[in-house]
Design a protein that fits this description.
This protein has 351 residues and is an alpha/beta fold. It has helices spanning 13-26, 31-47, 49-58, 69-79, 85-93, 103-108, 126-135, 158-174, 202-207, 223-235, 264-273, 291-300, 319-328, 342-349; strands at residues 140-143, 183-191, 210-214, 241-242, 277-281, 304-307.
Length: 351
């Protein structure tokens, strides 16, 4: 992975607006603010370059639905061949890395096994997530939207997931001749049900490139049944990654959540025996697993996946935070499956 290369003038208005949205997401700005730029980008794309030029001259850009005063200024400056000031300020203020350390491991990362799109609870279309991954130097990315039972996150039914798989196949075909375009892998973040079963049909799971399995319900289950639940999922031959295993949320207030209680040695041993990767979830509010559990999985010999759990394109860079933790805790890069080239990754998942 590489940091986003700053844009320089001249820049297309849609590209400028989209990049602003990514930088705001990377900085964890409000969804409302981000969406203003994403909606303006969609409106500008629909209007077309010629219409934007005419409206810039006539000073009527704000008459386009979805374009406000600030986004109109961005469009006008881009149409005029300038680097928009709003974008320039964000690029100047953006830190080179989100983490203080882990740079070597960050640069070694080639992909992501946990990313969401607007098909479930993500904030951007599939193609935009792939474009952001490409801009960050990914070789591949797995799209892992939620499974049906997680209705609060608009989880995908079998029928909707089938349509998404077809869209990914079409996107890969369309971009197959494009230099440096990353490969998009089909996938799912499948709910681990109370008994350890997976929240999707066997047929559909068998069609996917990547299955990341996570617990999203009954997180306060007693330790013994929670252990059996997670061991069953980690041992399922279709599961590639055990996602955010403790389910915790760090911080204070209503967003905080304690970690689930389970026999971590038993769960990680099941991961080791079945070559299921333990996810190092890089979202700042998760920091999951805690350091001591990463160290336990390291000592047992487990594989790891440093994932962003991105719900927006700019959040793909959260992996810098996971890389810092993994490097600090002595995880060798070769044990991190998200550093592997595509052919090695696909050989691993086809075990």
């Amino acid at each position: 992975m590489n940091p986003l290369a700053p844009l320089e003038a001249p820049v297309d208005p849609v590209v400028a607006l989209t990049r602003i949205a990514w930088l705001l997401e990377r900085d964890r700005q409000s969804t409302y603010r981000v969406e203003a730029f994403r909606k303006a980008a969609a409106a500008a794309r629909g209007a077309g370059r010629d219409e934007l030029g005419r409206r810039t001259s006539a000073r009527t850009l704000t008459d386009i639905p979805g374009v406000g005063k600030t986004t109109a200024e961005v469009i006008a400056e881009a149409v005029g061949g300038q680097l928009p000031r709003y974008l320039a300020d964000l690029q100047d203020a953006a830190p080179a890395s989100l983490a203080d350390g882990g740079d070597d491991l960050y640069r070694a990362i080639r992909g992501d096994l946990h990313a969401h799109t607007e098909w479930s609870d993500g904030g951007a279309p599939l193609e935009e997530m792939a474009a952001a991954a490409t801009a960050l130097g990914h070789e591949w990315i797995a799209i892992t939207d939620h499974s049906p039972r997680l209705t609060v996150a608009n989880g995908l039914s079998t029928e909707r997931l089938d349509r998404q798989v077809r869209q990914i196949e079409e996107l890969n075909h369309e971009r197959s001749d494009t230099d440096e375009w990353c490969r998009v892998l089909t996938g799912i973040e499948v709910d681990i049900l109370d008994d350890g079963a997976l929240d999707q049909t066997d047929e559909m799971l068998d069609r996917l490139d990547i299955v990341t399995a996570s617990v999203h319900s009954k997180l306060r289950m007693d330790a013994a049944p929670m252990t059996r639940r997670m061991v069953a999922a980690a041992s399922d031959p279709r599961v590639n990654v055990l996602g955010h295993c403790t389910g915790r949320r760090v911080g204070t207030g209503r967003g905080a959540r304690p970690q689930s209680v389970f026999d971590a040695r038993a769960v990680f041993t099941a991961c080791l025996d079945n070559r299921t990767a333990v996810e190092i979830n890089s979202r700042p509010e998760r920091v999951d697993p805690p350091d001591e559990l990463i160290e336990l999985a390291r000592e047992l010999g487990c594989l790891f996946a440093i994932d962003s759990d991105a719900h927006a394109p700019g959040q793909l860079d959260f992996k810098a935070l996971g890389a810092e933790r993994a490097e600090r805790l002595g995880i060798d890069a070769d044990r991190v499956v998200t550093t592997w080239p595509l052919d090695r990754l696909l050989e691993w998942v086809s075990r």
